Description:
Helix 1 (15-26) crosses helix 10 (294-315). The longest helix has 22 residues, at 294-315. This protein has helices at residues 15-26, 59-62, 76-88, 111-114, 132-146, 164-171, 192-205, 239-248, 260-263, 294-315; strands spanning 7-10, 32-36, 44-47, 50-53, 55-56, 69-72, 92-95, 124-126, 148-157, 212-218, 225-233, 252-254, 269-276, 283-290. The chain is an alpha/beta fold. Helices cover 34% and strands 24% of the residues. A hairpin with a 6-residue loop joins strand 13 and strand 14.
Amino acid sequence: MSSGPRIGVVGATGAVGAVTLELLAERGYGDVRAFASARSAGSRVEFGGEALVVEEATADVLSAGDLDVCLFSVGTSRSLELVPHAVRGGAAVVDKSSAYRLTEGVPLVVPEVNGARAREHDGIVANPNCSTIPLTCVLKPLHDAATLRRVRVSTYQSMSGAGASNMQRLAATQHDDLDLLMEWDFDGVELDEETKIREEARKIMELPELPISATCVRVPVMVGHAESVWIETESKLSADDARSLLEAAPSVRLVDFPSPGKARGIDEVLVGRVRQDPTEENGLVLFLACDNLRKGAALNAIQIAELLLSRAALAA
């Protein structure tokens, strides 16, 4: 029997759940269980060349006390329903939905940016939005060097960010029928996705008043989000200095021309086209791309879990 941590993957049959299982196997975890809805219970999912039988995610099962960490990749309503039961059973939960991201007292964590906050959890750590994660990885070193004054971002988000069913929809769509989508709720001012990016980035960066403006669209790309980013800083930062900072930043890879295709299947955030903004004295412009299923979701959550497990090991 494995002596490693006992890990549950809730939402194992979804796009992010599948990548979560793949990454856990790659990182050598062996005591892993797969959970999903009653509809998927009894099916099998791949894990390290073997097959795991999917268990139904119920309150009783998750509160049984036989899991150390639960990685949730389900919708907001299901997270609100089931996460408290996993916590009651003694598991530390990393939740990838928006259910707890802006809840006071729940850490919202990108390990390369604010990893120490994960250790302040009371059972739950929230995993940020798949566009906020790469954005803050890139903003952090620039802020530390020159202090952010303002951020503007346009995102081009792949269909995988909307789930496996939308990936299937894209695969079945004729090329001439492809179009940009603004599928998120709109309150007359901005999309809820745009609000999430601003509020989550502020919380992660611990800059509650930072002006951040976002425009988000879903594009006909299978995997990989891209973002155009304009920043203004309090002190002057040259493009060369910015490139040097980004090249040294954790989980960031400096390239000439980032793209979703180049980012797919890798763990780093690709950033490039770093240049001065000719309209702003202390302005920079850059472009980034990230595999939204890996660093944008599953990998970031596993990195959080590893921080929690290291804390538990130190306390033992």
